[in-house]
Amino acid sequence: MNIIHSSELFSQAQQLFPGGVNSPVRAFRSVGGQPLFIKRGQGPYLYDVDGNRLIDYVLSWGPLIVGHAHPAVLAALAEAASRGTSFGAPCELEIHLARLIQDFIPAMEMMRFVSSGTEATMTALRLARAFTGRSKIVKFEGCYHGHADMLLVKAGSGVATLGLPDSPGVPAGATADTLVAPYNDLDNLTGLFNQWPAQIAAVIVEPVAGNMGVVPPEPGFLQGLRRLTTEHGALLIFDEVLTGFRVSLGGAQGLYGIHPDLTTLGKVIGGGLPVGAYGGRREIMALVAPSGPMYQAGTLSGNPLTMAAGAATLQLLKAPGLWEAMDGQASRLCDGFAQAARRAGVQAVVQRVGTLFTTFFTPQPVRDWATARKADTTQYARFFQAMLENGVYLAPSQFEAGFLSTAHGDVEIEASINAAMNAFSRIKNG
Ligand SMILES: *Cc1c(COP(=O)(O)O)cnc(C)c1O
Fold first, then answer.
1. pLDDT, tens digit, for every residue of 277-294?
2. What confidence tens digit (pLDDT) does each residue in 147-163 have?
3. Is the C-beta atom of 242 inside 6 A of ligand 1?
4. Which atom belonging to ligand 1 lies closest to the Cα atom of 117?
5. 234 and 103 share a domain?
6. pTM of whole model > 0.90?
7. Which of 8, 122, 195, 201 could form a disulfide linkage to 134, CB 3.0–4.6 angstroms apart?
8. Is the CB of 121 within 6 Å of ligand 1?
9. Ligand 1 near 185 CB (within 6 A)
10. Neighbour order of strands in the sheet with 356-360
11. Full domain range(s) for residue 119
12. To test ligand 1's pocket by mutation, which of 242, 356, 400 has the most ligand atoms within 8 angstroms of CB?
């Protein structure tokens, strides 16, 4: 594969940006090689600066659920842009997008738009602390909720451990109230509630984990979270930044029938522009400034471009049968990958919920971070490179989700399965 122009640009970028990138996982560090510079996207395809065409299963890390450069999204953007890009004052498009979101996720009785998922989760936790008057929060090992200081913790498997920061620059004080529990482990969480009675403000969870690779909640796990938080007077926060509109159109809460107190969204609801949102029960949201005392603000929050692109995207998702078709393609793709691995004699497990999937190089299904980290990342790197050579762009890390869009048709699914057969046999014989 010719990557001459990408290489040239990457050397320039390395002078300007740490690691040559503006978000770490783009740098290909965990799969080797160097990132491709993208010139344009169209439907399910990426085109890089050297003219390579790739079937894209990253889709800007999830937002592009209707594919790249969808004409309806571009038209909505052009129309909005022609009237100005930001007002710092309310616009009707905010109401339009909020109502569309409510059609899919009715638990968001009130909401607030922000500009990233990081802001959404950070603020949802501030709000939970304001509402309960408590300080401690619980997160799960292997779950990512953006890069706010208090959430940069995954430490302490097994026992109830006070969080230690994962990153230099995060003071111990910032994570001192962050408790960490293993995913899919209700006993451990029960232990935390008993150890810190009446001190836990909220439990925040990726209701289908996507940021350690795709790990579904085991039967009863989410129900258990709902029961335990209610019993102990803590709020339940579903971080659906990734899962919203992707594990089902109603998110994980729709799929599993659980009603969280607060929900965070991002990615899909911005149609490819920067976005986040938090929302939930009206009495909780009433605490947010200016209706209440909990402060939160944003210069570009609810800007008309993001609102227009998001609304156009959600509108498209309402087409009858569209979700079922996309879910069906995801199922075909994952069955094809699993069968290709089996035929080649490579140990791999393909985990999927809706349009999110991960090929784990493990013999056993992955249920938490402890089992995820057993994956053979060297094999994943070889799989990734072989797929790239075969024209398929997967996430450049074992511990990320793959994404599908409504633009991926039979041709792309078939080509991807063929690429996987080739890639798995190369790994086996490699
Ligand atoms: C992507 C993601 C975030 C952070 O969103 P940004 O827009 O990147 O700040 C938070 N939570 C989850 C579950 C995510 O997948």
1. 999 999 999 999 999 999
2. 999 998 874 333 334 55
3. yes
4. 5
5. yes
6. yes
7. 201
8. yes
9. no
10. 349-353, 356-360, 402-403
11. 71-317
12. 242
